[in-house]
Amino acid sequence: MDKLAQRLREDADQIEIQVSPELENRIHASLHALRNDRELPRSSSQSASFWWASGLTGVAATLAIVAFVNLSGPEPQVGITEPPQQQAFSVPQFDWQLETAMLTETLEQELVDIQSDLKKAEQTVRDDLDEIM
User: How many CA atoms lie within 13 A of 55 on its CB side?
Assistant: First the structure.
């Protein structure tokens, strides 16, 4: 990293720049405005009261949220020893009919055929869901 920094410094030293008087005046005016802005006295009592107000507001909001969460939670049920019943879930078994793929046409045509088959299957599933609902 030192070699890179050294090369950058050497390259920067070789650059010749001429600043126009207009640009130099604008730079000095900007720097002067920054100095004047930094020298303005700031009211410490105003910032301290703002700090206290924002801090107290944050504490009040936190306490309100904690109270709301604690008061709106479910009430404990005493005396219930029976565990809740869960619905049985079974994984459906599919009868897969696997066959070795025999490509009779070009791969592009096979892709078009597979996409067509998928669209038909999707439509069948949609029709079945419409019947159920």
Answer: 6
